[in-house]
Amino acid sequence: MSATPERTHQNVMLNMETLMRQLIVFFCITLACALPAVAHGKVRAFACEPEWAALLEELGGNQVKVYQATSPKQDPHRVEARPSLIARMRVADLIVCSGSDLEIGWLPVLLQSAGNRDVQPGQPGYFMASDYVRRLEVPDRVDRSMGDVHPSGNPHVHLDPRNLAIIATALSKRLAEIDRENAEFYQTRNVTFQERWSASIERWEREAIDLKGLRLVTYHRDAIYLVNWLGMELTTTIEPKPGIPPSTRHLSKLLSELKAEPADAIVRMAFNDPKAPTWLSERTGIPVVELPYTVGGTKQAKDLFGLFDDTIDRLKVAAGRS
Amino acid sequence: MSRIYLAIAIALSMSFSVAAWAQDQSEEIDELRQRVQELEERLDQQSTTPESATTTAEPGLPTTADQPATTSGAPAPTSNKFNPAISLILNAKYRYFKLDPNTYTVGGFVPPGGHGHGGEEEGGHGGGFGPGDRGFSLDETELAFSANVDPYWFGFVQAGILDGEVDIEEAYIQNSGYVPGLLVKAGRFFSGMGYINEQHPHAWDFVDAPLVQLAMNGINYGDDGVQLRYVAPTPLFLEFGLEAGRGANFPGSERNKNGPNAWVGFVHLGGDVGFSNSYQIGASYRDTTAEEREFDDEDSLGNEIENHFVDLKSKTYGIDFVWKWAPNGDPSVRNFKFQAEYYRRTEDGQLEYDLDMAGAGPLEGPYKSEQDGWYAQGVWQFMPRWRVGVRYDLLDSGTLEYGPITDGTISREDLQQLREHKPERATIMVDFSSSEYTRFRLQYSEDKARFDETDQQLIFQYVVSLGAHGAHKF
Ligand SMILES: [Zn+2]
After folding, report:
1. Does A14 map to a domain?
2. Are B62 and A162 within 8 A, CB to CB?
3. What's the ipTM?
4. CA A176 to CA B458: how far, in whole Å?
5. DSSP string of A228-292?
6. Which positions in chain A touch B234 (Cβ < 8 Å)?
7. Is residue A29 a part of any domain in this protein?
8. What integer pLDDT is reported at residue B151 of this predicted model?
């Protein structure tokens, strides 16, 4: 990747002809660089997390070109504002993120460095999924002694499929607003998606009926929407406070707590460090269940449907209720 | 003639403002249209969701029989909706120095503060140039405000506060993308040259700046002026930058001139290698002139030589490189960061000098130098919260053509500041972050910046941030 034309004739005097030639070369290279940005009429969408990339694919089909900024192996709280992400945000027509400060450590830098006005807050190209649903755990007061709490509520909203249904409709409308020519296309796709989705929700709720009351330990409170949806219980977290890694002392305290009052499963999301969950599991006999957290987090979670299929399957196996 | 220019200027500025006004109008209409649409959307959703009657603020909610521990009606308390994001950085140190910090100097280089020796106090912009004081000390408390001014401009100010002095480190407005890919910044800002230059000291991976940064840029090179950055619409990150500024800061000086006195150009290129690696390389150039820069040297007998640069062209070339590794791109448990920068500076111009021992008035002569230096550092997070790092610094005082030498009064070896030297420093550090907002750091250096002696420096530091959640650049 280079955009500077190389000087080829240094021995000849710089006459008009060589100057023109250089200008043409420079222009062609610049154009070549710009080409990927204008070669197709598709909407270019920047998805902060894999779940939104998957939803965009469901709703946008071949009319939307999706760039997924993070992998399921990455903790979405802790992502580097890498140069490659700035480059992708530069050419995006739409960014889709969880919002509610989940991406506060990196998204503001991207928005500031990319020079793309279309995706700034308040523009149609700025879509924060959690704005459309009721967030749980909105704190009454925020103080950093509570750790890195999310001041406007828990942003991990995608793990309740009913939230996804609402978000899908809002996102579909947004796509139609950005790409008016294909408005009908997006609407149709959303209708199809909603039909399949509500049927799936019914099925999942049936399948998960036995999970009611299941007591879970998670690393971070990122499963609260899932727990809330299926009527499970989140007893405690491995991190002592949001964003604070557990110390040995905290782990041994947790161990005695769990021995006194056992849980049914210790959840490890795909991006969590396995050390602490395994350590606790070995000493308490409580099984570790590895959940995908997002699309691609496990082999089975290929798309949004697979995400919930697999999550429920794994929980049932862990609970011995399959 | 001047009347014609004036007419052209007025015509141009008017046509520009009319165009801008027309655009504003159409934008406003667009915005209104959009707002109406959003309202319609909200109404739509509320009429389709069953619980819409109970909440009006948040459209659409999942129907749940039992809502645990939610405060549904409570407004989000902290994100002060219209007020600027405020953050405060507290920074204190304990320092042990084997050698007296008042004798600190980067040998062979004209000091950025203007004088040969000195501790923390003598610095100008961006803090002191010495290694600081022995023992316990509170360092600058940094206070930052930022917010969108309106739909077009973002405003940022960061001030350093210490013992009755307030130092505006940065204060600028920025427009992002009025022209796609173009970022316009105006005011006072840290230059985009190099890599570490744009970072505030609290974001550094070591307590102090690399020696080359100190010698060439005087901690953080900042300027009052205008910056344009253009991010190309390419799959790889490619950014061009141009700055024009007052140029009053080292290595330039105040000039009483209408046009800009300092120009900076830079280019950055960055990308990923697989999921786990990302990099950025950069090249930069600065062109500035010093007219008021002064510094005093001595000969080996302690006779003073006063120097005054009359018209000194200073050109600085730099390249920088950063490589970050994190397994699958997730740095929370383990990660590694390597960074290195190289700078070369050439200075060429006229000098007025006054030799103590000669007793005659000021003389004129040439000053010409070519100097360079680099550093490389690696920081390894081996477990959550804990990092270790090493850094190596090396400078070369290079070549010197200097009035008092060319007129035969003195030899270079006799100069106490500008004689040949290769300042060198090796540093190791370990730091612990109890959370994202706190860092405790212990650092040890063997510092050979002075000519003949090696200083041993042990520094303990804490840096904490209060208020708005910071987001750091790559
Ligand atoms: Zn979270």
Report:
1. no
2. yes
3. 0.84
4. 61
5. HHHT-EEEEESSSBTTBPPPHHHHHHHHHHHHHS--SEEEEETTS-SHHHHHHHHHH-PPEEEE-
6. 1, 3, 33-34, 36-37, 87
7. no
8. 86
How many structural domains compose chain A? 2
Both tokens of B444, joined, read: 């040890």
Of A106, A114, A122, the CB nearest to B231: A114
**End of a domain among A152, A180, A200?**
A200
Whether B296 contacts B306, CB under 8 Å:
yes
Q: Quick one: pLDDT band at residue B58, thresholds 50, 70, 90?
A: very low
pLDDT per position as a tens digit, B341-369: 999 999 999 999 988 766 667 889 999 99
**Is A115 within the bounds of a domain?**
yes
Q: Note whether B177 contacts A74, CB cutoff 8 Å.
A: no
B 342-401 residues inside an 8 A Cβ radius of A:
384-385
pLDDT mean over A231-246: 92
Taking the centre of ligand 1 as the mean of its atom positions, its distance from the CA of residue B59, in whole angstroms, is: 22
- Shortest Cα distance, chain A CAs vs residue B420, angstroms: 37
Across B99-217, the runs of DSSP E, i.e. the strands, are: 135-138, 141-148, 153-162, 165-176, 182-190
CA A103 to centroid of ligand 1, rounded, Å: 9
The answer to whether the CB of A76 falls within 8 A of the CB of A49 is yes
Q: What confidence score (pLDDT) does residue B124 get?
A: 34
Residue among B140, B155, B224, B240 nearest B190 (CA): B224
Size of the A and B interface in Cβ pairs below 8 Å: 221
Domain of A185 in residue numbering reads as 43-200
Return mean pLDDT, chain B: 83
Asked if residues B461 and B443 have their Cβ atoms less than 8 Å apart, the reply is yes
B233 with A37: Cβ contact below 8 A: yes
A217 and A288, same domain (yes or no):
yes
CA distance A291 to A316: 12
Judgement on whether residues A258 and A312 belong to the same structural domain of the protein = yes
pLDDT, tens digit, 9 for 90 and up, residues B184-203: 999 999 999 999 999 999 99
Q: How far is A180 from chain B (nearest CA, A)?
A: 13
Cβ contacts of B180 on chain A, cutoff 8 Å: 115-117
> Is the domain of A212 the same as that of A188?
no
- Do residues B263 and B243 make contact, with C-beta atoms less than 8 angstroms apart? yes
**What is the average pLDDT across A173-190?**
96
| Amino acid at residue number B53 | A
**Is the pLDDT at B21 greater than 50, yes or no?**
no
**Quick check: A118 and B177 CB within 8 A?**
yes
Longest alpha-carbon distance in chain B: 95
- pLDDT, position B47: 39
pTM: 0.83
One domain, residues A58 and A195: yes
Of the candidates B401, B377, B389, B395, the one whose C-alpha atom is nearest the C-alpha of residue B439 is B389
Q: In terms of domains, do A47 and A109 share one? A: yes
Q: Do A142 and B77 touch (CB under 8 A)?
A: yes
B26 touching A, CB under 8 A?
no
A192 within domain boundaries: yes
Give the residue from A180, A200, A220 where a domain finishes.
A200
The verdict on A196 and A213 lying in the same domain is: no
Which of A129, A140, A73 has its CA nearest to residue A103? A129
CA angle in degrees (0–180, nearest 5) for B414-B417-B423: 115
Give B111-126 pLDDT, tens digit per residue: 886 443 333 333 333 3
Residues A178 and A134 in one domain: yes
- Phi first, then psi: give them for residue B352, nearest 5 degrees: -105, 130
Chain A CB within 8 Å of residue B79 CB: yes
Do A140 and A272 belong to one domain? no
Instruction: Check residue B80 and give its pLDDT.
Output: 52
CATH of the domain at A246: 3.40.50.1980
